[in-house]
Amino acid sequence: MSRIQERFDALAGQGRKALVPYITAGDPHPEQTVALMHTLVEAGADMIELGVPFSDPMADGPVIQAACERALAHNTSLRDTLGMVRSFRQRDEDTPVILMGYQNPVETLGTREFARLARQSEADGVLTVDLPVEQAGQALETYREHGLDTVFLIAPTTSEARIKKICEASSGLIYYVSLKGVTGAGHMDISEVKNKVREIKQHSSLPVGVGFGVRDAESARDIASIADAVIVGSALIRQIEAHLSDPDSMKKKVADLLRDMREALDLDIPEADLSATNS
Amino acid sequence: MASKAPERPETLASGQVPDRAGMFGEYGGRYVAETLIEPLAQLEAAYFKFRDDPGFVAEFEADLSHYVGRPSPLYLAQRLSEKYGGAQIYLKREDLNHTGAHKINNTVGQALLAKRMNKTRIIAETGAGQHGVASATVAARLGLECVVYMGEEDIHRQAPNVYRMRLLGAEVVPVRSGSKTLKDALNEALRDWVTHVDTTFYIIGTVAGPHPYPVLVRDFQTVIGREAKTQLQEMTGSLPDALVACVGGGSNAIGLFYPFLDDAGVRMFGIEAAGLGLETQRHSAPLNTGRPGVLHGNRTYLMEDENGQIIETHSISAGLDYPGVGPEHAWLKDIGRVQYESVTDEQALAAFHELTRVEGIIPALESSHALAYALQLAAKMTPEQKIVVNLSGRGDKDINTVADIEGIEL
């Protein structure tokens, strides 16, 4: 069983929803990323989406674009990113890590070599933003051979026929993009999201995560009421951006925001169950 | 030099490439985030329907005649040819089109498509500003809202075009991310499109981007080559020996080359910007020095570093300053049908002056790259041979750049 599936099964057993923070590897500095990942877990993350920096992140908004630029200022490569996952694993063997990025750095390294290194570093899943399911054929096989989950996006514009196709190619979880827009935008319509998540669930038994418009504890809780996982990126990175010169308060602010979300997600869970999870 | 208009096509459909998935061999395709898949499928369906619709084709052709001013002349540059002592050099005068470049052929076509698809808002990216002006122009004509994304760097280089766009009612949005040039403007336009996909039509200015853009833009631009073929046959009774066009994204080059691809005797040269020299890394020549990769929705040759990050490019001409190239060019390079060469800033600048002084035509710096190569090529050919150079745009927009380089204050 994959680490992602294990985690979702455990959460489902407790009646809880997954909290999935996104950060960009190498932002604000490659040496801070692993510590930041541990901070995320301590603040309540169930799994981590680790962004691979790319010079032209066309599906991302200005906040993640800036994060990529900061990471690239230190030449953070895909290989470096995988190295960070490996160091993270020295202290954390349980928290799933999903690599999220764009196709060009993967191809430059070589899909097979990337898959091999990702496996070796004990990453768990791959989400390539600009590799839609039609173009993914060979890469899918390679990732599966290496035991990596293949995560795809579904968007508000995705037709039902495509939802089916994407569900078939997915493993680990399905990532629903909550709005027509880029990451960090702020115009999510919760009832629309609810309908679409329901539609996806008709085609797949995989957990559905929702992201792109989660800003705070309240929107996190709204999403948690209709999906299996809440994915939050730009809101956290705004905290990184606001405290670039002070790593300690940066870590604290990121942790505070994530902890607020965790609490909001767990509001209805009995105290006893919660302490059981934390053990 | 008046020549009969070439035969009116019944359809804009053309050729066996790309395949149904938009692939030219291993290049092209649709590498975009999920949100754009459906809008691209809708665009593809609409375009494939209308390109075979006689009403649409007739309206496009009528606009090309009466609004753009086609056919553009094919002009024998006699003094220039004599000076270089070789082949006869013919110039396809796309610089004489309305708005001063070949870009308008494509924007007229895409605007008609936008109207048929009931879109109320046009967005575009621009480098040199020619495509931005051409987009703002058709938007004004159809009463559509228009937003043009332009790198901050390019806004400084191309101030007159920025003002033109604003006069035409377009909003010009400066792009401050990344290298602040064309590639970043394209990213920003894609982001806008993702956010406003219901109302907005994205007019891509070159034969790049996700399928169906490379084929759609090609089809709208092949009027250049069709006319040139007819015109040269009327003037000389024969086909050219060589075609030369500059290649940034490559729309003017595909437009000229495409109708000649099956004419085995016609050699074709696509000229990339060698900037300060191919060896300096300060250039925009992915076909000459790059590797295949994925950017802006398609697989093609790219300028990238060892980690697959796109690197900053350089060219004296903003319109060639792009790290990728249309996927059909990548394919034509691999199959050996077109030879891709390069010309430096300095050589292009010399050709700019040469044409201005010898023929009284001020060419765009982009087109000056094609011209510079054509002059080298002509000198190695005989006076019975003929070269057609795509003079893709006029140089008025570049006079500030040229004056700057030469230390002249205007």
Helices and strands, with pairings:
The complex is a heterodimer of chains A (279) and B (410).
Chain A: H1 3-13, E1 18-24, H2 33-42, E2 48-51, H3 62-73, H4 78-91, E3 97-101, H5 103-109, H6 111-120, E4 125-128, H7 137-145, E5 149-150, E6 153-154, H8 160-169, E7 174-177, H9 190-203, E8 208-211, H10 217-224, E9 229-232, H11 234-242, H12 247-266, H13 271-278
Parallel strand pairs in A: 1-2, 1-9, 2-3, 3-4, 4-5, 6-7, 7-8, 8-9
Helix pairs in contact in A: 2-4, 2-12, 4-6, 5-6, 10-12, 11-12
Chain B: E1 23-24, E2 27-31, H1 37-50, H2 54-68, E3 74-76, H3 78-84, E4 88-93, H4 103-116, E5 121-126, H5 130-142, E6 145-151, H6 152-157, H7 159-167, E7 171-175, H8 182-195, E8 200-203, H9 213-221, H10 223-236, E9 242-246, H11 251-257, E10 267-275, H12 286-289, E11 291-295, E12 297-302, H13 327-334, E13 339-344, H14 345-359, H15 365-379, E14 386-391, H16 399-405
What is the strand tally of chain B?
14
Task: Describe the strand arrangement of the main beta sheet of chain A, using strand numbers.
Answer: 5-4-3-2-1-9-8-7-6
Mean pLDDT of chain B: 94
Rg of chain B, Cα atoms, Å: 19 Å
Number of helices of chain A: 13
| Largest interface pair | A-B, 46 and 39 residues
| SSE topology string of chain A | HEHEHHEHHEHEEHEHEHEHHH
Total helices of chain B: the number is 16
Order of helices and strands of chain B: EEHHEHEHEHEHHEHEHHEHEHEEHEHHEH
Structural class of chain B: alpha/beta
- Helix percent of chain A reads 40-55%
Shape of chain A: globular
Distance between the termini of chain A: 22 Å
Oligomer: heterodimer
Helicity level of chain B: 40-55%
Q: In what range is the share of β-strand residues of chain B? A: 15-25%
For the record, give the distance between the C-alpha atoms at the N and C termini of chain B, rounded to a whole number: 35 Å
Largest sheet of chain B: 6 strands, mixed
Largest sheet of chain A: 9 strands, parallel
Given as residue ranges, the uncertain stretches of chain B (5+ residues, pLDDT < 50) are 1-6
